[in-house]
Amino acid sequence: MKIDLNIQPLESWIQTGKEPLLIAGPCSAETEDQLVATAHLLAKTGKVTALRAGIWKPRTRPGEFEGIGSIGLKWLNRAKEETGLPTTVEVATAKHVEEALAAGVDILWVGARSTANPFTVQEIADALKGVDIPVMVKNPVNPDLTLWIGALERINNAGITKLAAIHRGFSSYEKSAFRNEPMWDLAINLKTHAPGLPIICDPSHISGNRDLIPYISQKALDMDMQGLMIESHIDPSVAWTDAKQQVTPAALAELIANLTLRKPET
Ligand code: PEP
Ligand code: MN
């Protein structure tokens, strides 16, 4: 399979001096206080490069919390002003892209459910034409490497050269300790097909459970992935979404400090 992505190095759009590159923040922005307080604690660790928060949440069933919506963009801006952390949100429609761009969000990401739908990805890509903003593309929920590559190509064809992939694991019917099977081979294959493409691992959505996050994070670093996206909440026990997999900023700092940066030579 030939893929020809025109991409700029990661260093051109995100600070990579801190090792490992860490994007952290709550699964969902819930209240202004929760988001801003979490951001302050994350910034204080000195280990976080960008703040993530979902404001439009793709939920499996209706009636669950579907995200705080556009008001969250204001909260993200306040968190950025007060902490200096650049911000990133998930966009799933052209309207989300327009609103996020108008609000000054620094980095966008495409979620796993959107990547699985070429119409949605194309709609997002069309809304990005002529815009210079970094975009991270999560793998599709299903283990289909070509679908992941296709989404990256669509965004790249729209002129987005600050591009990265996020590996968040894949749905599987197999009984597993993981919420989403890592299927590391797929990420390795992506690297082989697109050698210059940065890949960031999302251990939170692979694990589904905070106890497994250190193991998955270490594995990602051992595989030379370029960074980690980890969900962190000021009080995970009361989180409105993904409570079991979120960690406090203090636990996150400890987890990162315990990672070995380079695989020991054998
Ligand atoms: C998220 O990052 O909170 C999220 C919804 O992730 P995914 O698209 O990987 O399921
Ligand atoms: Mn989540």
UniProtKB/TrEMBL annotation:
Q: Does the keyword Transferase apply?
A: yes
Task: Name the Enzyme Commission number(s) assigned to this protein.
Answer: 5.4.99.5
Q: Name one GO molecular function term.
A: transferase activity
An example GO biological process term is: chorismate metabolic process
Q: Does the keyword Transferase apply?
A: yes
| UniProt keywords, alphabetically | Transferase
Which sequence ranges are marked TM in the entry?
none
Q: What protein name does the entry list? A: chorismate mutase
Report the source organism: Mucilaginibacter segetis
User: Covered range within the whole protein?
Assistant: 1 to 266 of 374
